[in-house]
Sequence to fold (243 residues):
Amino acid sequence: MLSAPVRQWGRAIGDLLYPRPCAVCGAAAGKAFAHLCWDCSAEIDFLQAPMCARCGEPVAGRVDGAFECHLCCAQPRHFEKARSAARYDAAAREMVRRFKYEQGLWLRNDLVSLLYACIDTHYDEVSLDLVVPVPLHPVKRRTRGYNQSEVLAAGLAKRLGLPCARRALRRVRFTSTQTRLTARQRADNVRGAFSARLPARFRQRHLLLVDDVMTTGATVSECSRCLLAAGAAGVWVVTVARG
Ligand SMILES: [Zn+2]
Ligand SMILES: [Zn+2]
Fold:
């Protein structure tokens, strides 16, 4: 086993000889991300205030004080707060797509860096105890070979120095793709799709729920509802991208 400095030197020399290509355009990767060039990383649309205090959806224009968006006012939200690093667009979209659908596990560290930056920006006042991934249905997991949210949650937990409860949530019902559904239909589609079980030592704790992409928030809200029913004190959500 090589020591960490030796590994780092090896990597640095390797990068000099064979610069890693950008996952989006193929140019040499920059320094901020291992697999993204400067130009593509500059195109990442990081989500910024003003945003809905609950779900983190940004709004255009000037807003005074805390507010909740129309979606959060229209339906119950079981998470305390949800935040996403970037708009599901440009480089963020391409990285998530390759990570999820093209076995692009080599992108995991870059995506975890986006999640970590998002936590650092939006959650510095919250003390979190445990990281939980949104589960995939076992059939889908078998086909893909991994659950992308679990890979992200494990990487993020390691960086945060927190435990990761990979099996706290299970998907007990197969749900059809939500792409063409409205917010209300998505909420109906995921109802009863999950079950949660928290070991006694993780009850009454503050959980961080991790997913790759959040759209209307129906899935993470339903997961949060199950986790609260299983004894969680509160659920905070972080995703790489917002659709
Ligand atoms: Zn690029
Ligand atoms: Zn909202």
